[in-house]
Amino acid sequence: xxxxxVPDVLGEPFxxxxxxxxxxxxxxxxxxxxxxxxxxxxxLTGPLRDVDVLYVHGWSDYFFQTGLARFWNERGARxxxxxxxxxxxxxxxxxxxxxxxxxxxxxxxxxxxxxxIRGPRPRRLVLLGHSTGGLTLSLWAARHPRTASxxxxxxxxxxxxxxxxxxxxxxxxxxxxxxxxxxxxxxEVDLGFYTRAQRELGTLPVGHETWRxxxxxxxxxxxxAAIIAGHATVASGIDVGCPTLVLLSGGWTSPVxxxxxxxxxxxxxxVDEIARAAMRIGQRVTVARIPGAIHDVFLSAPEPxxxxxxxxxxxxxxxxxxxxxxxxxx
Length: 330
What we know:
Blueprint: E1 6-7, E2 15-24, E3 27-36, H1 40-45, E4 51-56, H2 66-73, E5 78-83, H3 107-117, E6 124-130, H4 132-143, E7 150-154, H5 163-180, H6 193-201, H7 221-236, E8 244-249, H8 271-278, E9 285-290, H9 302-320
Parallel strand pairs: 4-5, 4-6, 6-7, 7-8, 8-9
Antiparallel strand pairs: 1-2, 2-3, 3-5
Helix pairs in contact: 4-7, 5-7
C-alpha cells in the first residue's frame, strides 16, 4: 500500500513512504518521505530524543546525505527527509523535473510529511532545508507559526544571485514570460562546476543521475517567477517564529569558469547576499560562516564539514534546544 514504509535505495536503516498528492496535467503527484530512526540507548537517552527532524533538499536534488541523518540519530533524534513532488524518488515519467508554479503549493507536500511524522506523543519538530529547500521551509514556517521548534538552513536561497535590485529589475519580465509560456525552457547557465567540485572532494552521490544531473534541471519561466515571488516575500520581512541557524560558506566564487577555489567556497550563491537576507526571516537568527565550505556545507572537505557539524551541535544543545519547554501537541 502507498502508506507503508518500504526499503529505500540508500539501504538500511533508511526506509521510504509514498505520500499521494493528487494529480495535475502531467499525471500523478507524489512526495516521498525517507526516514532513519535512532536505535538502542541513543533513542532512549540522547539529548534530542524528543525531536523529529524534517529535511528538504535543494534545486535539482534529492536526499542522499546519510552522514547528516547519522548526526541526528546519534543524538537520539528521528530523521526524516522529503523528496518533494517531481524531484528524486517522487519524479514520475513525463513530468517536468522540479517544476512548481508557486512555492506555496509545497504546503501539501510538507503538510503530508508532518502528518506522517506525528505520533501519539508530542515531540519537537526541527526543520532543516538546503538551498531552495531553505527558502521553501522558511516561507512555510512563516505561514505555519508555532509548528517548528527550530529551523536550520544550509546555504538557503533567500535572494537571487543578482541581488535585490537585479531581482526587482527582471521580475516584470519574468512574470510576463510566465504568463505567456510558463514551461518555456531557459538557456542553460549551469556549467557543472558545482558538480565538479563535489566530485573532486569525493562527496558526489553515485548513480541516480536523472535525479541529480551534472548541470542541473532545465529551468522555466513559471518556476523562476515562483522563486522570485518567494524572494520578494522574504525581502519584505517574514517571521519563521522559532530560533534559526543559517550555515554559509565563508566565501563564494562566481561560476563563470572553473577555479580550484570552488572546492572551498560556495559557487552557487553569493553568500554575502544570503547573510543579509537572513536577517529578514525572523527575530532569532544566527548566521554561522564556515571557512572552506561549499554550497552544501555538509558535503564539504572533512575539516570545514566537521566545523559545520560542530556549529550545528553547539547551537542546538547550548541554545535552540537546550531546554525542554512544555510541548504543544502536533
